[in-house]
Write a structure and sequence with these properties.
Elements: H1 2-23, E1 34-42, E2 48-56, E3 62-73, E4 76-83, E5 87-89, E6 93-101, H2 105-117, E7 121-133, E8 139-150, E9 159-160
Antiparallel strand pairs: 1-2, 1-9, 2-6, 3-4, 3-5, 3-7, 7-8
Protein name: Late embryogenesis abundant protein
Organism: Lysobacter zhanggongensis
């Protein structure tokens, strides 16, 4: 009889622990997002179409409200990528926003040289991303920095990836 009482007591404790663990729900982690250039296309008018990849490393969806990123190509200031993409990116996922961009003359020349020579081109992004995590207040993530390179895409004139 005493063994049954202990068994019931242990079962009751396990049920309470299991219910308590389920009540807390999944962890809601908000991490700094990231941005990088997925593709840069030189348009017929000389401006650029920049496919900016917005990466959400959080465990919850995040709406990307605005970006303001200084762009430098091959050591030349190209200007500021500024847009209001208004896209929601799922947890630990990414999406692309197209930004039409008017680059500086020095940046245009650097990209033209890279495309003509078939060589890679370094770039840097520095600035902020304004985003709203799911069911939370809007935040400005100020320390967005990326250093990488783009190369001409074979068979696609005027395109760098």
């Amino acid at each position: 009889m005493a063994g049954r009482t202990w068994g019931r007591w242990i079962a009751a404790v396990l049920v309470v622990a299991l219910v308590g663990a389920c009540a807390s729900g999944p962890v809601r982690r908000v991490s700094d997002p990231s941005a990088r250039i997925q593709q840069l296309t030189v348009r017929a008018d000389g401006n650029w179409s920049v496919d900016l990849r917005l990466e959400n490393f959080s465990s919850i969806p995040m709406r990307f409200d605005a970006v303001s990123l200084g762009l430098e190509v091959d050591g030349h200031d190209a200007g500021t990528l500024a847009a209001q993409p208004g896209i929601t990116v799922g947890p630990e996922s990414a999406d692309v926003a197209e930004i039409i961009f008017v680059p500086s003359a020095a940046a245009k020349f650097a990209v033209a040289q890279s495309l003509a020579g078939g060589t890679s081109l370094s770039y840097a992004l520095d600035g902020s991303v304004t985003a709203t995590p799911d069911e939370e207040n809007q935040r400005v993530f100020k320390d967005i920095t990326r250093r990488s390179a783009l190369s001409p895409a074979p068979g696609l004139p005027g395109v760098m990836r």
